[in-house]
Design a protein that fits this description.
The protein is 58% helix and 11% strand. With 201 residues, the protein is an alpha/beta fold. Helix 1 packs parallel to helix 9, helix 2 crosses helix 5 (82-98) and helix 4 (62-74) packs across helix 8 (147-166). The longest helix is centred in the C-terminal third of the chain and has 20 residues, at 147-166. It is globular, with a radius of gyration of 17 Å.
Length: 201
């Protein structure tokens, strides 16, 4: 299978964002993460901070999830909540970016948006707690005493948002084609593995 798109979900502090950006740089293709939020922000005249707040407040209700999914499939977002509308707009932005050619997508349930496209490889990046702690302190300047609560908050947000919009569990390995441990492989090791997909190796 020719790889056209890589979608990456990742644990907070696993280095997933750095891996995606480095991979995009080495392969000469775009990486879309915060760019998805910025596209939604421009189109709907709402700030990125507001969008992130709506993502964080998404309902974990199974009935909400079924309702959102039915509206997404019908293309009707008029009766959706703010959270549901953000999801629909993010999915549209991802589709628009994918239409421009091969790319890497970070989070935002990108695999859901691209499920009808060919050549999509779904990746999950994890790391052990000690490595995540070091990276969170170094990359985000989070004080040591706040690392664990910050990590849990971000992972919980990602997990809830993923479930609310897919009915699947975010960290279930069955959702992914490849699971990488960045504490074992390192940032460059993960990049090397994923780069081979685009090179057909």
């Amino acid at each position: 299978m020719k790889c056209n798109y890589i979608t990456i979900e990742r644990e907070y502090g696993s280095g997933g964002t750095r891996i995606a950006r480095r991979l995009a740089e080495e392969c000469g293709i775009p990486c879309y993460g915060v760019e998805i939020l910025e596209a939604v922000s421009r189109k709907n005249n709402v700030s990125v901070d507001q969008i992130q707040h709506l993502e964080e407040s998404v309902s974990g209700s199974f009935l909400y999830t079924l309702f959102v999914m039915s509206k997404v499939q019908s293309g009707d977002s008029d009766m959706l909540s703010g959270e549901g509308k953000v999801f629909v707009e993010e999915q549209r932005a991802i589709e628009n970016f994918a239409g421009q050619g091969p790319a890497i997508f970070l989070g935002h349930c990108a695999a859901q948006a691209l499920k009808k496209r060919r050549g999509v490889v779904k990746v999950f990046i994890r790391a052990n707690n000690e490595e995540k702690k070091k990276r969170i302190m170094a990359d985000y300047q989070i004080p040591e005493g706040e690392v664990e609560s910050t990590r849990k908050r971000f992972d919980n947000k990602r997990s809830k948002y993923f479930y609310a919009n897919t009915t699947r569990h975010w960290n279930d390995v069955k959702n992914y084609d490849i699971v990488l441990d960045s504490s074992q492989l390192g940032i460059e090791g993960c990049v090397h593995v994923l780069k081979g997909l685009f090179e057909g190796k």
